[in-house]
Design brief:
By secondary structure, this protein is an all-alpha fold. The chain is built from 9 helices and no strands. α5 runs parallel beside α8 and α6 runs antiparallel to α8.
Amino acid sequence: MFGPFLLVYYVMAGIALGWQWYSVALPSWKKWLTGKGAQQEEVDALAHHSGLAWPANAAIGPFALHTAAAAGCGIHLGPWLLSRWYVWIMPLLGMASHSPTGNDWLQHFELTSVVPALVAGYLLSRHFGRLAQYAWILPTIVLAYKLLTFTEPQVSVLAPHPSMRWEYFFVIQRTMPTFADFGGVDPIRVGEQINVIAPFYAGLAYSTGAFAATHDLLTRIFGNSGMQCETETPQTEEHTRGRTADEPEEAAHERE
């Protein structure tokens, strides 16, 4: 699946892979040189002068990693998981299934764009937490550019209707056009929604998952519930024991 703006995310993926390789290769190279008898100061100076030593706080690597991961969830991982649901899970559950099609993807567009990215953002941010909450920035820039440059053919180029901009992108088409039959669906519009809106939804979900992991929201929510249950249980037991101890005294007063 390709498109003019998908190239941006593929570039981000390339930078992310290069950054990960650099993070592993540079320490190994330094270790190899020191093992040959070179001093650590000489190794650091050589890496610096040869341009191999990037600043330790460079943001491009982590930013590219999380941006590419979020876009990949919305464009590739979500549809793949949906297809595995039809092929693997539904037959195991004894449910009627069929070969997944593009229509199935578009009918579950929001679900496949959001849920995988939400989970991926939560998990990846625990291991690569830096800038994970900013995965929404690049997809939002792409969407803003598309909204600002949008022109509807049937409306004046100078004054396109504002609502038409939002409907064109956010009212998802539920039928996938084919080469044999477009079925009354604009294939360019479907392509724009896949290439622009899916990464946008995924970026927001990914950043939300990263925010939840960074602030440990799941532990706060479910952990507090567990603590409340544990606190209420001893109080209930003490109240029950108190009632049990008071019953003989009440019975004695009644006999008197």
